[in-house]
Automatic annotation (TrEMBL):
Molecular function terms, GO-annotated: acyltransferase activity; peptidoglycan L,D-transpeptidase activity
Residue ranges of domain L,D-TPase catalytic in the record: 238-369
Protein name: L,D-TPase catalytic domain-containing protein
Pathway this chain belongs to: Cell wall biogenesis; peptidoglycan biosynthesis; Glycan biosynthesis
GO biological process, alphabetically ordered: cell wall organization; peptidoglycan-protein cross-linking; regulation of cell shape
SUPFAM superfamilies in UniProt: L,D-transpeptidase catalytic domain-like
Lineage of the organism: Bacteria, Bacillati, Actinomycetota, Actinomycetes, Kitasatosporales
Active site: H318, C337
GO (cellular component) term, any one: extracellular region
Metal-binding as UniProt keyword: no
A Pfam family recorded for this sequence: Big_10
Amino acid sequence: MAVVAGTLLLLVTACGGGGQADGDKGGAAGKDGAGQVATGPSQAVVTVTPKDGAEAVETSGVLKVAAENGTLTTVEVTDSKGTPVEGKLSADATGWQPVRHLAAGTRYKVHAVAKDADGRESAKDTTFTTLVPKNTFLGHYTPEDGSTVGVGMPVSINFTRGITNPEAVEKAIKVTAVPAVPIEGHWFGNDRLDFRPEKYWAAGTKVTVRLDLDGVEGRPGVYGKQAKTVTFTVGRSQVSTVDASEKTMKVVRDGKLIKTIPITAGAPSTTTYNGQMVISEKYKVTRMNGATVGFGGEYDIKDVPHAMRLSSSGTFVHGNYWASAGTFGSANVSHGCVGLRDVRGAYDGSMPAAWFYDNSLIGDVVVVKNSKDKQIQPDNGLNGWNMSWAEWTK
């Protein structure tokens, strides 16, 4: 119908100039008799791969639109909901490809138009359906959608299957911020991808994470199944510095020291890691069993108050009700955690541990210095800040 309509339009145009006949040349025909108005079918041919009606089509590398004996003037690809697929036209306008992978198990419609040298158009309309994967993977992300976090909070995604095509997976995840700041991803092994800026987030930053994993082949025959957008807000800036030698913790909020808290850090035989650590979990009361972190039966405390996780390996800043009040600020006696004075049951809001718990966000930074231990590994918790920007981005 498009070809017929185009032909009729050309005929009407030729007749509308006053009945030029017998070789009489008007403006539409050009100078010296060259470029006669063509009334035949277009010489342009549109080809679409995959073929019309194809099923179980791969989500990447298959969809292509091309024009022979002409150039593409229109390429529209939409899914069953009418959502357009973004694509890129070649420099000579004879080829088109999507810029990203397609979703799995989805029916797509293609409408493409090409024009030949005489301006005549040829159209092609096809449909195809992408494959339904037998094996899939998910990305478990932190922080939670809609949360307010501290300035040290990275975006951390743990995949349910090991990824062997990290470039495709990382390309399908976009992290942006307002105000804008460069954000880069870093892989820890083949199943964890973290994103962060060079320095801590600015207070008040709005962060958006787009997971466009549906249809991404993360490893041979294993495809992502997520299409989700997550947003979170960075709250006020709070960075607390633990000096293991001085046995104090200085809490700095928005650049101002607001509290100095006496602490007890790791004993000489069980020292506390140095480095920048991010609070990843908060528990008003939790159980701590030494057997779960390599200390055998040395302790099993069923009601540790005001506990905030700093590492995957078991480092916490938490309340301590079993040590004497004189311990805090004068002796390091813990198994590697940072202890603050507290009461059993976590009911007394006047205790230092309760104050710190109530005034801390997941994503706040706790820096430990002057401990006789090594620096914490960047993948031990959400602690990628212990890598330089050069290391992070290489």
